[in-house]
Amino acid sequence: MRVVIVGAGHAGVQLAAALAQAGHGIVLVGEETALPYHRPPLSKGYMLGEVDDAALALRPAAFYDTIERHAGVRAVAIDRPAQRLILADGTALAYDHLVLATGLRNRRLAGALSLRDIADAAALRARLAAARDVVVIGAGFIGLEFAAVAKTPERRVTVIEAAPRILGRSVSAPVADCIAAWHRARGTVLQCATGPSEAHFRADLVLAGIGADPDVALAKEAGLAIDNGIAVDAWLATSDPAISAIGDCASFPTASGRVRLESVQNATDQARCLAARLAGRPAPYDAVPWFWSDQGDIKLQIAGLGQGADHLVLRGDPASARFSVFRFRDGRLAAVESINRPADHMAARKLLGRLTPEQAADENVNLKALCT
Ligand SMILES: Cc1cc2nc3c(=O)[nH]c(=O)nc-3n(C[C@H](O)[C@H](O)[C@H](O)COP(=O)(O)OP(=O)(O)OC[C@H]3O[C@@H](n4cnc5c(N)ncnc54)[C@H](O)[C@@H]3O)c2cc1C
């Protein structure tokens, strides 16, 4: 079977690697020219100068000799009746199965830089070296991770957030408060419920971390169903059975509605799930979602999805910056957010839906022991 994959990011490359093992013909199309790379370090170790380009590589260069790779070119159309993908340079690629792994496009703000790919990160890193006054617009994960790297005793860093608190859609209040306190203790100015003013744009460096939208351009043009991303079924197939979608760009059904996730775990697990289907072992996608964010010595890990949670239980002391928040929905454990408690996180991945609020609150209950 000839499988054509659009998007050479975490999902696309993981799928290519899994399918290569199964002996399929693989074509990987990506508009970026760099060898496919890990994106999370761009706002962390790479920005700090601790991780270089070589260490970012998702696969060794030799892997791409085993597949057909088209780099530096955007796919612009899908000829569905003829099962062909059309590239911007006019190349037409025939497919038996087409996979869209097109990720996200950042929302942009005039006068501000953006961070999505390695070219953005390299430009930001160079500008940061000379900057003394930095403004970050948007207190989401990427903005806060960048602020954590940018803040030094010599550099002023201001983070502006339109919502009443940081990470409003992503984490519970105790976790957001702990992270906000950590940034403030280092001298970063966090201003919530505030929009950017003209004065903010006079800083040496302004980064907009104001979210991103799924890149559905190709899917939309081809008439595929769109619903907060490229809509797929439980097996990750789009409204055309010869086309699937995975990773940040895809929205999939769950028991609590349609969901679209922006995480490495989701991208790689969906790639594995789809590879199994294309190898004749179909199974619905039901991996436990998990995510991490590193900000200085704060390591946040999240298991599950906290949206709609109606009750929370703390384990550990937030003042110590070493605690977990167990979030329950209708009495069932829906998500666990851990700050510097990796053992809680590992246990949580197995205990979602099973742990009671009483067990979560009791430090004498050994979570690891309950996992078996
Ligand atoms: C700075 C940063 C930090 C992050 N930190 C974390 C973290 O700590 N933890 C975590 O879990 N996640 C993190 N993420 C998110 C994580 O990187 C994404 O969830 C993951 O990359 C999604 O993989 P993907 O393959 O779906 O999309 P991507 O990795 O974004 O890849 C999509 C690729 O498709 C290409 N493309 C799109 N359209 C076309 C087209 N028409 N033709 C050709 N190519 C196309 C794009 O150029 C891109 O290269 C971070 C993201 C960023 C940007």
How does the SSE layout of this entry go?
Elements: E1 2-6, H1 10-21, E2 25-30, H2 45-48, H3 53-56, E3 68-71, E4 75-79, E5 84-87, E6 92-94, E7 97-100, E8 104-106, H4 118-130, E9 133-137, H5 141-150, E10 156-160, H6 173-185, E11 189-191, E12 205-208, E13 212-214, H7 217-221, E14 230-231, E15 243-245, E16 250-254, E17 257-259, H8 264-278, E18 290-295, E19 298-304, E20 311-317, E21 322-329, E22 332-339, H9 342-351, H10 357-361, H11 367-370
Parallel strand pairs: 1-2, 1-7, 2-3, 7-15, 9-10, 9-12, 10-11, 14-16
Antiparallel strand pairs: 4-5, 5-6, 8-13, 16-17, 18-19, 19-22, 20-21, 21-22
Helix pairs in contact: 1-8
Bound molecules: flavin-adenine dinucleotide (FAD).
Flavin-adenine dinucleotide binds near residues 32, 74 and 103.
